[in-house]
Design a protein that fits this description.
Elements lengths: L12 H6 L3 H10 L6 H16 L12 H6 L18 H19 L4 H23 L7 H5 L2 H15 L2 H26 L4 H8 L3
Helix pairs in contact: 3-5, 5-8, 6-9, 8-9
């Protein structure tokens, strides 16, 4: 069972809300926190939005990767402390762009709505759960973002499904995997959490 006290206290809740995967965190290491996170996130989201508006989500070649690659502009900002006045905007920008990309691909390729909603629902549940946990000082384990692929990993996975012509299968497998992962981890974490909010807060400060 997941031990709540084993999860380290994050250096910033905003950074935790980003839900960066291995690739984005690796890009962040290259700049060692010296790049402000908000401008590249806005730039990446804007370029991604323009490409989605132009119908790139319905392309069947390598160009379908372009929106995900564009949003990787936000990757190097992952190592920043996100302590700027408006840096709290970065996670919502990443969420809306990721959800928008996945929804556009799903509609463009006639993915069954149940699979599309299941995938988006798994992600929405996870992101809400992380925000609520941080507010209760019951922090998610460090491995969870990597296991969940991160926003960039999920976008690249969906794009790969388009390129290989197996969009529906990738949506189904991704939805099944993420629902199982996020629900299992959340349930075991909350079962291991102290029932007292004061005790939870105390545990959050032990590491």
């Amino acid at each position: 069972m997941t031990k709540v006290h084993m999860a380290p206290v994050p250096r910033s809740s905003v950074v935790t809300y980003r839900d960066d995967g291995v690739l984005a965190r690796g890009m962040g290491l290259l700049v060692a926190g010296q790049l402000p996170p908000l401008p590249p996130a806005i730039a990446g989201a804007f370029v991604t939005g323009v490409m989605l508006f132009l119908g790139v989500a319905g392309a069947d070649g390598p160009s379908v990767f372009a929106p995900a690659v564009a949003l990787l502009l936000a990757g190097p900002g992952s190592s920043h402390a996100h302590d700027g006045r408006l840096d709290w905007l970065v996670p919502p920008i990443l969420r809306l762009t990721e959800y928008g990309f996945i929804a556009c691909v799903g509609f463009a390729w006639d993915v069954p709505k149940v699979l599309l909603f299941a995938l988006l629902g798994a992600m929405l549940f996870h992101h809400y759960d992380v925000v609520y946990r941080c507010r209760q000082h019951v922090y998610p384990p460090a491995w969870l973002a990597s296991a969940g692929l991160g926003w960039e990993g999920r976008m690249l996975l969906i794009a790969m499904g388009v390129l290989l012509g197996v969009v529906t299968a990738v949506f189904a497998l991704a939805a099944l995997y993420l629902v199982a992962l996020f629900c299992w981890e959340s349930i075991t974490c909350w079962l291991a959490a102290p029932r007292s909010g004061v005790e939870a807060a105390d545990l959050g400060g032990l590491d």
